[in-house]
# Entry
Amino acid sequence: MRLAPAALLGVVALCGSRAVQALSVEDAAGVEKPRRRDVVDAIETEEEEAKRLGVWAHRAKKPDCDEDCRVDALVHQRADGLVHQRSANKRHIAVTQVNRGRLGNHLFQWAALLSIAKEGGFEVVVREMKYKPKDTAQMRGLASLVWEAQDYAKLEHRPNLCHVWDQTPITVDTGLPSIGVWTGWGQEKGTAHIPTGIDPVPGQNWAKLWADAMVNTTLPDGTLCETWELDGFFQDQWFFMDHMDVVREAFWHQPAAEQAAEILKWLMFNEKGDSVGIHIRLGDYKYTNRNMPITYYKDALDKVKARSSNDTLTCVIFSDDVAEAMQVTAVLEMCDRRVPVPPDLGEANSFYMLGLMPNIIIADSSFSFWSARLSPNKPFVVAPGISKDRAEAQSAYEYLLHTPGWEIVSTTTDMADEFKPKPAVMLAMEQRVYPDAAAAAAARNPHMESEWAY
# Structure
């Protein structure tokens, strides 16, 4: 849905309203950042202005999709009569998934699901649960694959339900009594657990290796699994690196991106020179020892500025708490001007707005990762290269490191001293267990409901 002219005027009004005034450190104080003496405003012709503002709409377009990247080619038929017809053909397999985490995590899981299905010739069933295509722009490309609960339950009537985790080496579980059951990560499911002998390493096509394990592993008593369940976070690019065409086709919703472009055209109406989108992740990171230091953003801006031929740089700030993010970024002297993205615009709009930026600095965040990764315009992206002593801890950050063409800035994570809670509070937050409803309500942080907090 495109913004009507009246709505566009609303965006203009919003960008100059109390919402932005309260968020913008420079504007709210009524003090504009002093302009450098070597920067002189040039008079822009109407043609130049139209060209500058028209760039945003151009950037919203995704590449044409050929037959190989069609998402609807993976549709699994609901007709019960097909069950017996297909049982002799192991490549007509339905593959579904247990989803974990927030939207950014789901995008990793759906990307792996699509890629494994492409490699194995499988058909896909996506569960309609927390996120639904009608409410989630990034999911609308999956609409033809989504089953509602009553249809999804019919999958359980098939014989020989099987399961595979995202862990290495690959082990398959058979004899599941049901599917869609949430368990602890890595917990065995079913009655038999069969090592496949496949131990993927970075750089390989993991989607193919998982598909091979599902198709070629010898199962008990000639078992043929007609329905496979994937489970885990699948938060590693090797699962989908070879299938970014179908992943982008599924997740980059062009109408939503075009609407985001219209908003950016007005938000950036007076901004000339170069621009960069910056994600400041706050929310839960204040408390989980994964706070990004401001030095990371300073170093990342150095990378952006070094490749820019423009004298001025406008920094567009995306965050789960934009007011605080504007305070945090006040020390970023490389930003000639900072423009906050008002939360009133909605997270679908802001997700695609970040993806439309020519330069992007992401946080350790699955949400901003996907905004940058799906962009069809090959923006200049800076990502944090975070090093940890323990392999288990390091694995949480590997997804940031493997995108071709991205600039990696070495950094660390830490917990800001002023945000360190008492041990008992920390334990309650980690376990999400509170003594009563009042304590739970008191601990609720509305900013942590934002997808930008994850």
Remarks:
- Residues 138 and 251 are 5 Å apart (CA to CA).
